[in-house]
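Q: How would the structure tokens look for this protein?
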Amino acid sequence: MKNYDFNKGGYYILGLYSENNKNALRDSIGEFYTDDIKVLNQFKKVWTFNKPSKKYSCGYHYDIFICKKGQILESYAINLECKVIVTDKGYFYFDTNKLREFYGKLKKPIRQNKIFETVTEGRLYREKMIADEKLIMTPNPNWLEFEGSFRFTYNCKKGTKDCLDEDNKIYNSIVSRVKKQFPHEKFKMKNVGGSWTEIEIEITCNKTLSDQFNFKDLERNEYFGKWEPFKVKLDSYWIK
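A: Here is the predicted structure in token form.
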């Protein structure tokens, strides 16, 4: 937070439920936001974290966002029971009093959820919405850039002892192949699992790439290999 000059105005801190884990402090504060410059500067002063924490597999109670003009500038995840905050610099001990002291100083955001028939309709709505001064934040969904996704399986060559030991090398080689074959198509790829004999890859792209994708050794089965267009949904958070 130290990188933001809250005194210039236009900033928000937004706290949203991350999961449905019950917690007395979270339930008493609820989802919240503030654009009050005094409160924002209090957050900046109090929310400094230097004591490292180990990683816990216990989920999170809050996602915290610093926002401006509807966009997310920075985000954190907090678990109030494990007392840990995750930042872009790592895992740190979180004293829950650093949230408790803001009780009564925060406002409740209004959440809206919209569903659109087409990607074009959703993009046009979001473009108009982002200029609204009452908007606190709306995410950047994949459908702003892409139309959907599909998966494929890479079967490791004979002699490979374990696909997972070489998954980064294999992944990078597949990315290079797709870029070379389809230089005018934009896409994102993600390794979604595998075994000692194969690796599963998800590719997010436009349907034109899906229709042309015909690598014989990158198998698209009848279930995961089907083209899945995105459901065009948009959450947004507003001041009253």
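The chain has six helices and 14 strands.

The radius of gyration is 22 Å.

Upvote if useful.
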